[in-house]
Design a protein that fits this description.
about 700 residues; eight-stranded mixed beta sheet; 18 helices; about 20% strand
């Protein structure tokens, strides 16, 4: 089943860099009656526009969902949800889109459920003739159409998987498809699915393959952070090569300094000046359990080379680019990819660079027309992105007063068969090792393994939860051993403005308000009355306890791109455009409130997943943002229209909308008011009402 296409690393990279197709993104999700989801100029989804309408107005002219500036009565998508409006990708049918075929083919994936046996092919004889698929996509199909068999050349060598399991080899990972089946219609699909699901005779396996007993390979070199205030040694002083990566000499210095910290800790424990607390932890692979399993529509038009995708996704532009690259140099010509983004029904990392859109796009050219695919809850558990299984260990050293003196932690994440974003997740786990505490001596390292397990992704927390679990557990043990309150031991170790540092040595320049949070928690009735409640429960034979845990999470990378547009409509209502995706975290609601600080009114309408409005701004080259002309180590901002994350929505994107509203007020509204009223003395601080 080898691919006949000349497939070397050089030709692969050359082809990937010369893709001649365009990618565009729009949104059709009617998140609410007040939440616009479709720009009128996109022709492929014309009749969905009828489902988009503005919110009712309150008596003061504000939107009914939020008549008071800066406050919401209910979520902006609330009416749409409770009235059953089309919200999720699985709500949409091909007939909902103008110009699309009215009927749909249905897609089914035959997936491998073991990785220790040779794959010998598949057998569809369990299906009677009237339930047979109209098309079967497998490695032979890719070969016949000159489609690259994987996203990387020599995928196993480059720590990746083939699109389909290869005959004569074990599956590269659990859930790897051996084929995709396209059925004529839903009824055929429904009956065939019952015969195919959990049928051990469909995929043929051969001899058992011995597992490799060697340590699993790593996706990238392990990360190591060392902080030693005694020697002013911090990673912010890292010596770098021309690509901005740490030099081998600096890595050696880190390792040597880490050894000195461990030796110092051992001496202080031996001298009974410090106390040590150790922990070994393991967390399993965890599924995010979306409200809606992944679903989508695809339609390929061979006469124009246009590929249309309707997806519930966190990263619509990335999905479009990946879909187009699948067919580079193949017999199937792609001139454009348009992604219509829907409400994903939960995201938080689980749909960040998901592989569902890749396979949907791969099958689209082989359907008769529109193609529909919706995973069941079981299939989503089987192959959806997970929080990686993690093994980690940690030691902390504290003195008699409870002051943290040193920390040593190691995290190993199981990345599965495709890297996804787990490398960055592992990196942040190490960077989060100190959490919200100031520790003068710290060693934190992480590694991500390449295994045939399920794919690991960027689940909410992005490495933080593992780190927080470790240090909070040990802090409680230390408090109990030293007969200290869990509040007191934490209060004496908090990161504080102007005298605290992160594990990389970066100084804390602003107030984290950690002590105020502790004070409020300590006076909370749940903590204050815990002994009374415990005594009451004990009378009924029940055990009861209240614990404390804190964390301090990083938000973004510092190079994430956030853009926003605030518009005044002809009817005086406000409209917000954002390239952010609402993942169920209330972002559409929050961003629609953001203009109120400057303009005195919440938005009636918000457009999510917007890309083209920003990309087409004249003389605006976002590709150079973030680069410092006098520093060759600086890089441009991250992919400007990449994935959405929960933290970026709550902080960065909100600020973008707020600043856009400020610019609109200062540069347009006030000058217009001065001219209309003939008064040059109208200022921002003057009392005004929209």
């Amino acid at each position: 089943m080898a691919c006949d296409v000349a497939f070397t690393r050089r030709t692969f990279l050359k082809a990937m860099g010369s893709s001649a197709f365009t990618v565009s993104v729009s949104s059709v999700t009617v998140l609410i009656s007040a939440c616009s989801s479709q720009r009128g100029e996109v022709p492929s989804t014309g009749n969905v526009e009828a489902n988009t309408h503005n919110a009712l107005e309150a008596a003061n002219g504000g939107p009914d969902w939020a008549p008071e500036p800066g406050k919401a009565r209910w979520r902006i998508e609330g009416i749409g949800k409770v009235t059953g409006a089309k919200i999720y990708a699985r709500d949409y049918k091909a007939r909902d889109f103008d110009g699309w075929p009215k009927e749909e083919n249905w897609l089914y994936a035959l997936r491998c459920n073991c990785v220790d046996k040779m794959v010998e092919g598949f057998d569809l004889s369990v299906l009677p003739r009237h339930l047979r698929p109209i098309a079967v996509i497998s490695s032979e199909t890719l070969n016949d159409n000159h489609i690259y068999p994987s996203m990387k050349p020599d995928p196993i060598k480059n720590k990746d998987i083939y699109h389909f399991a290869q005959t004569g080899y074990p599956a590269d990972c659990y859930g790897q498809p051996v084929a995709l089946l396209i059925f004529e219609d839903f009824d055929t699909y429904r009956h065939a699915k019952k015969l195919l699901d959990f049928n051990s005779a469909v995929i043929r396996y051969g001899a058992t393959v011995a597992r490799d007993d060697n340590p699993p390979a790593l996706y990238s070199p392990p990360k190591l952070y060392v902080r030693d205030d005694d020697n002013s040694f911090w990673n912010i002083h890292m010596e770098t090569d021309k690509n901005g990566n740490p030099t081998e000499a600096f890595k050696s210095k880190c390792a040597a300094m880490a050894g000195e910290i461990r030796a110092l800790a051992a001496r202080n424990v031996s001298g009974k000046r410090w106390h040590t607390f150790n922990g070994a932890f393991r967390t399993p692979a965890i599924d995010p359990v979306f409200m809606e399993p992944e679903a989508g529509l695809a339609w390929y038009r061979p006469e124009t080379g246009a590929l249309e995708l309707v997806l519930g996704t966190q990263s619509p532009r990335d999905d479009g680019t990946t879909a187009g690259e699948l067919f580079t140099n193949s017999k199937i010509k792609i001139s454009s990819v348009h992604v219509t983004g829907c409400y994903p029904g939960g995201g938080f990392g689980g749909r960040d660079k998901s592989y569902f859109p890749l396979y949907l796009a791969l099958a689209a050219p082989f359907a008769k027309g529109a193609l529909r695919w919706q995973q069941s809850r079981y299939e989503q558990f089987q192959v959806g992105l997970k929080r990686s299984e993690t093994v980690f260990s940690e030691s902390i050293w504290v003195d008699d007063s409870g002051k943290l003196q040193a920390l040593d932690s190691t995290f190993t994440l199981n990345g599965g068969g495709k890297e996804n974003l787990t490398g960055a997740v592992g990196d942040l786990a190490a960077m989060s090792a100190m959490s919200c505490y100031d520790i003068a001596r710290a060693v934190a390292q992480s590694a991500v393994t390449y295994t045939p397990e399920v794919f690991g992704g960027s689940q909410r927390g992005f490495g933080g939860p593992q780190a927080f679990l470790a240090i909070e557990t040990l802090m409680d043990e230390a408090a109990q051993s030293l007969h200290m309150s869990p509040f007191d031991i934490r209060r004496s170790n908090l990161l504080v403005k102007d005298r605290g540092r992160t594990v990389t040595g970066a100084p804390i320049r602003f107030d984290l308000q950690l002590e105020q949070l502790l004070d409020r928690l300590e006076t909370h009735a749940l903590w204050r009355d815990r002994e009374i409640t415990r005594a009451q429960r004990r009378k009924h034979g029940l055990r009861y306890g209240v614990g404390l845990a804190m964390s301090n999470q990083a938000y973004g990378t510092g190079k994430d791109a956030v853009f926003a547009i605030v518009q005044i409509q002809p009817d005086t209502s406000l409209r917000v455009l954002s390239h952010y995706t609402d993942m169920g975290n209330g972002a559409a609601t929050t961003l629609a409130l953001a203009p109120a600080n400057w303009l005195g009114r919440n938005a009636h309408e918000i457009v999510m997943n917007e890309v083209e409005a920003f990309a087409k701004i004249k003389d605006f080259d976002y590709r150079i943002l973030g680069k410092w002309p006098d520093d060759n180590r600086s890089y441009a901002i991250s992919g400007p229209f990449g994935s959405s994350s929960a933290c970026l929505g709550a902080f960065h994107h909100f600020q973008a909308v707020d600043r856009a509203a400020m610019a609109l007020m200062l540069q347009s509204v006030l000058p217009a008011a001065r001219q209309i009223w003939g008064s040059p003395r109208i200022e921002l601080q003057d009392e005004r009402r929209w």
